[in-house]
Specification:
Layout (H helix, E strand, L loop, with lengths): L3 H9 L1 E2 L2 E6 L5 H10 L7 E4 L21 E7 L11 H17 L4 E3 L3 E4 L2 E9 L11 E7 L19 H5 L5 H20 L3 H10 L7 E5 L5 E9 L5 E5 L4 E4 L3 E4 L3
Parallel strand pairs: 2-3
Antiparallel strand pairs: 1-2, 3-4, 4-8, 5-6, 6-7, 7-8, 9-10, 9-13, 10-11, 11-12
Helix pairs in contact: 1-5, 3-5, 3-6
Amino acid sequence: MHDPIWQMMQEEGRLGAHPVHFLAQTDSTNNVAMTLARDGAPAGTLVVAEGQSAGRGRLARQWLSPPGSGLYVSFILRPALELADLPRLTLAAGVALCRAVTRSTGVQVQLKWPNDLLLEGKKCGGILTETDGLLGDGPVAVILGIGLNVNTPVTLFPTELQDRATSLTAVTGREYQRGLLLEALSEEVERVVQRMEQGEFAAILAEWRQHDGLAGQRLSWLTPQHTVVTGISLGPDAAGRLHIQDDHGTIHEVLSGDLALAGE
């Protein structure tokens, strides 16, 4: 499929006003973006790769990144936000990703707290925000990494993931232009960061809840202490922290750890 925006981005090293570092292959676009940020790369810089050998997800998991089929991009952000507000950027980015996918493909997607994109209940994309080692004068540099399975055949997923992972093409039978997706995503990320800076997180969170694929469902939460809490997802609170109500009526505040539908 001819993808003029993707081709232009490679040739010109830009996507609109955004500088783009386009790589045929790298270990992780987040690693490259971190190095660039430390060297003073401006906000809005993008790092895009055709494939990644060591793409990362939440909880140190690997993000499968077969070349030429997915969207693997990291944004360098320098948002005018308090440090306490930075973790909320992951939820805000989820809203931007939903908007970009639906806007450019017409496909309706959902979100799984805190950073997964779901399509028909299976994982189709993920978000990884990182700030380690980037504290200094002025706004903190935040690396926002996004992986999206676009035209990825299900056969490229390991056997153990094929019942839990999917792609846009696998569900719809259509192929999509990654350039259009990236263009929409870049615009939506820029827009949602501006909204965060203007103090609109409550409205962003309300939109996130509209896409919540787990609200009201029974979940099992593996805590960082390796205990299991099972209960009903109440969705994120005003600060963006997930709440689960167990069978005794106790409400647990989830800050980190692993989540799965009960029975999976």
